[in-house]
Amino acid sequence: MEHKRPFLLGLIGGVGAGKSTVLSFLEKHYHFHVIQTDLTARRLLEPGEAAYEKVVSLLGPGVLGPDGSIDRTAMAGMIFKDPTKRQAVNAITHPLTWKAVMEEAYACKKCPVVIETALPSKEFRDKCDEMWYLYTSEENRTDRLMESRGYSEEKSRAIMESQAADQEFRDLADAVIDNNGSPEHTKYQVKALLKGREGIRYT
């Protein structure tokens, strides 16, 4: 008899939406295996990993730090105001990242999996059993980024403008979680969405 693949959940939302709070809750109380696409992408940019040589070849030695690793701040400076370079880097990193992410997800046989990303797509949606959108207002996201990461208001707004719009997230989601209130209210919504799911229990 073929082994049934565990429940695969997609969690989408923009920068500063508070996805880490939901991921921590899912991992601790529902025993989800957590995959964050941004962390996977960072790993693939390390020396010897799949995207390293291609990105260095594209951007040149100026993208490297003293230790030979890719300086992410330098890379961000190179591509932030140059759409052509940004698209070229994305064309390298995105396919490699999603390949690694899905391989990790499908290798997990005994627990549910949640994949978090700020890059929603129909292709990703079609791979998931369900997708949730964590909605937080731009005002609250800006405040959180300024407080938690030390970003300026200008930088916070610029990053948000470069990401998918609210409606794009909503169009792909099976459920929307409002994260503008307290953490307890957010957790209540998660509990309601998972209540009665086969093989998924709160502990």
TrEMBL record:
ATP binds at residues 16-21. Keywords: ATP-binding, Coenzyme A biosynthesis, Cytoplasm, Kinase, Nucleotide-binding, Transferase. Its EC number is 2.7.1.24. Its main location: cytoplasm. It catalyses: 3'-dephospho-CoA + ATP = ADP + CoA + H(+). The keyword Iron does not apply. NCBIfam families: dephospho-CoA kinase (TIGR00152). PANTHER family: BIFUNCTIONAL COENZYME A SYNTHASE-RELATED, DEPHOSPHO-COA KINASE-RELATED. Catalyzes the phosphorylation of the 3'-hydroxyl group of dephosphocoenzyme A to form coenzyme A. This is Dephospho-CoA kinase.
